[in-house]
Amino acid sequence: MPKTWNIKIDNYFQANPNCIIATAHVDSFPIDLPLEPNIREPNRKSATYRQIFDSLTTEPVKFFSRHSGIVLSANKTKPVKNKTELELEVLEANEGGSDGIINGGHTVLAFEQAKNYNYNLTEARVKVTIHIGLTEESAKDIALASNTTTPVDSRSKVNARGDYKFIKQYLAQLERAEDRKFRIAYYQNQSGAPRNAQCNVTHLLKLLYCLDRNKYNPDGNKRTKHPAGMSLPSNITDAERERLTALLPLLTHALWIEQRLYEIIQDHISNPRRKGANDLASIDIRKTTLLPDSKYSFGFGAPTDLALPIIASYRVFLDKDYKWILPFNEFAEDFLQHLWTNYFRKYLVSEKTAGNTVGTKISRNQEIWESLYISAQSYLNQHLVKMVNSSKQEESKVTQGTKGRVQAGKK
Known about the structure:
With 411 residues, this protein is α+β, with helices and mostly antiparallel strands.
């Protein structure tokens, strides 16, 4: 059911058939309007919020002239109580609406806090622009254009355009099918989402890109041999979405590789050769790390890209259609242990000894990406040779058995 909110006003005018501009009272302004159309949630620690709060509480009578106003979206709007209030009918997201605060989340938060601290706001006014009957696309377009006071990160803009919908839908299906819960931040200051970089939607994209053996192929003629230091697109085109959608079934495998690597590291630092010592570069035992799957948290801090070179090496086992050449469950654990024991652990130890502890520099080192990739190729070749030899042995046994039966029949 649509919800209604009333805004007390001094006056208003109809700017056009689908837009009303009014002078609203701050002290009674509804602070629970939905933020659905906004591209990020307000952050009380930001400079924008502090400036609005200070302006409102120090000289509330001048707030109207100093503030650019609030922009709202409503399904319907009408004047009530002798035109001293505007009644807003708001459709919620599950009703197909995109109504609420388009721009002004920090302002409404400042109203709420000022009321909580019992500031006298009876003289404060604010300009309110109400767009009526906007589509979701139009509301997001206005939100993108309006949020220019402080920088909006590219992730929030991509999310506002709806470019992450295919990822959200896939994760929702995965949650239902596998009874798991993901904690992913899709936009700036998103409440309920961890600030850990591993829980950022862009991290999920990086995991997928690492397994793109068609884009990152050292055996080809392309300049992009490995996804070290990859830059993500600020606009997901239809072609890019099609490619990422083809890679999506590999996301659970990438998440598993990352989770298992972290478990191995956790075990390593929990059982050091010298008590209290950590011999791995970029690992901080004073911090914690959360992974996107809400089941996993670890007692150490790690750079976001730590697992990427490991995950990228697995693309050797994929064909051009992103299908595993070998069954993933049959080789994944053994191969990870092989990489950790023979390459990655030694690499992190050597970097720590050399004093190189900055995680991003380590994960962007082309040499480790190359050595892990070559190791994966060697591992795969050995596996395939064993399979061929095993097949020949089975074939030989069958042939010998057949010959024996033929000779027995002749006797």
